[in-house]
Amino acid sequence: MLDSCKLKSACNLPFIYNKKINTAGTSNADVPLPDPGMYQLDITLRRGQSLAARDRGGTSDPYVKFKIGRKEVFRSKIIHKNLNPVWEEKACILVEHLREPLYIKVFDYDFGLQDDFMGSAFLDLTQLELNRPTDVTLTLKDPHYPDHDLGIILLSVVLTPKEGEHRDAQSSIHSFLHWRICEIKTMLMRKSWKRSSKELSENEVVGSYFSVKSFFWRFQTQSLRLSDAHRKSHLWRGIVSITLIEGRDLKAMDSNGLSDPYVKFRLGHQKYKSKIMPKTLNPQWREQFDFHLYEERGGIIDITAWDKDAGKRDDFIGRCQVDLSALSREQTHKLELQLEEGEGRLVLLVTLTASATVSISDLSVSSLEDQKEREEILKRYSPLRIFHNLKDVGFLQVKVIRAEGLMVADVTGKSDPFCVVELNNDRLLTHTVYKNLNPEWNKVFTFNIKDIHSVLEVTVYDEDRDRSADFLGKVAIPLLSIQNGEQKAYVLKNKQLTGPTKGVIYLEIDVIFNAVKASLRTLIPKEQKYIEEENRLSKQLLLRNFIRMKRCVMVLVNAAYYVNSCLDWDSPPRSLAAFVLFLFVVWNFELYMIPLVLLLLLTWNYFLIISGKDNRQHDTVVEDMLEDEEEEDDKDDKDSEKKGFINKIYAIQEVCISVQNILDEVASFGERIKNTFNWTVPFLSWLAIIALCVFTVILYFIPLRYIVLVWGINKFTKKLRSPYAIDNNELLDFLSRVPSDVQVVQYQELKPDPSHSPCKRKKNNLG
């Protein structure tokens, strides 16, 4: 009798996902019946009434989240300063189980802070009639305060059975499951006959159940998860270019009658933070950045101004908004915005432009595989089209093929990996391959290149439905180091990009670019990422930056010692040669000799490299320090003795972070100069040679006073010619593209395990 009950329970296992598997006897009445197939739930979020006030002004900025089975399936737009918002937004959701209710949660949006909870409600999908529109009124409640009245949400819903290919896939799944369950049932009956006096092992039931469920998820990934893959890709429809010019008459927040203002911008999930301008009420930022526009009708940019306070919470100065739907496209708008809930104004330039080519497709649909499209791309970036759209430097195609031997992230001994491909602020995702350590994605990503010195970042995550994704591995690939058309296995690295982690990823990358446009873009400021990690205080990082700066300073100190030894005649032959050289150079000195000497140094190093006498040394010191930093990060936080250094300087944390960053900037500046002359990035070194040749010729043929005159006229009239131009230094912009020693270590490719030997295939070099 017990065995027969277990068999009934086992037959129903594949349909009971959220219930604990029970090998005790159950009746068929206790087991929920399986759903006949997929359903489509069409929701229209109408409006809210009498919602709870969560802001100081007695209003709220509400938005709504819809969840099924703890997973967010839709999020509405934000309605600002309204307790009776009208959304009129539509959502189409695929539902696998009607037993799982639709969970509605309402939040008050707070920029820069945690959003406030405004109430929640459930919608029982089993109570809906099929193929019939239904108006639903839901009363919002707070589980902690059930007596509070938090208003209502009005919806219109239609539940329809999902026909077509999804239903066919579901029928195939159920047919297979029926066959597989019968096989399990026969197997369990045979074992029960042999051991009639013993209870069946729960592991046998669970193991058989998971074998069926793993097939179910693999099959489902190919069809039912397709809409989720498109949802996660977030293809954008345009670019919002914003230039933060200045602030005027801002509110004084400090005791000295001034402020240290900075500005935060937010468009959806995209965030940007400006630099801090110390001790001023009329800051001049002159910063430019781009946001991606995902909505066809536009969106609202939330802008808040803050006063930086070291050691305590920053003070709020004021807020304002930009409604993008009210702005015309392909036109620059100058906006002077009054700050609400505060004082002062912000001056901005906002430009909306059409979307560039950023897309995801299957491996069978490749831009460069189509001969006609490939010729169009080559023509677009040919040398003859130098002055056509200077921002469009090149084209990048990334084929994310597969990964092998990934890290185990789930208790089942598997992972649910998906891949994120990033180029500056462009960020696209693959679909998730469930229960697999050797996933195959076979996706093609295309990007427009705005800076050839950008770094392609490919990160593998494990999807977790109940929390944020787990990190599995990452690679960073400079675009200039890519070999076109080569399928290559990249060893995955840790978060700091300092050492290997488990697994390799197979990529095939093609880069096509216009070298002249790329060279011109090198002399303007780099694109800033609007999502960057916060600076953290670390003993190892502080020590590393100090040692790096010390090494740069020691180069100058050693040079000074060398000159001093020549003056002291420590070595008479060397001092005599230095004295003769000094007389010759001073007597014949011309200004053009300065770039000429640098040009000769670059040329000398180049010939040393091609002759095999490479004087570049692998910087093991920096690599060792990076590994030490990683070990420091992995230490137990509860070890008070090892954390003593951090605890002692906690009170001056802001000062220490500033010192840490200054040391990093100084050390990086010196290392970038060294790496320019060491040919770390040949493209940049060749560009430096061309620039030095031009400067040498100009200084040789044109008198210095004319050069200084032209330079002075340009500087004095720049504000008159272009009042809102962003000041930049071409030399510093050039050096910002040269990697520091830390970045050189991070971008190094690790040698893959000999067992991972990708099938390399060379194509025509398109670069």
From TrEMBL:
InterPro entries: C2_dom (IPR000008), C2_domain_sf (IPR035892), MCTP_C (IPR013583)
Chief subcellular location: membrane
Domain of life: Eukaryota
Cell location: Membrane
Highest classification ranks of the organism: Eukaryota, Metazoa, Chordata, Craniata, Vertebrata
Gene for this chain: MCTP1
The protein's name in its UniProt record: Multiple C2 and transmembrane domain-containing protein 1 isoform X21
Pfam families for this protein: C2 (PF00168), PRT_C (PF08372)
Parts of the chain that traverse the membrane: 576-607, 683-711
UniProt family annotation: Belongs to the MCTP family.
Membrane topology: Multi-pass membrane protein
Key words of the record: Calcium, Membrane, Metal-binding, Repeat, Transmembrane, Transmembrane helix
Ranges for domain C2: 23-138, 220-337, 371-492
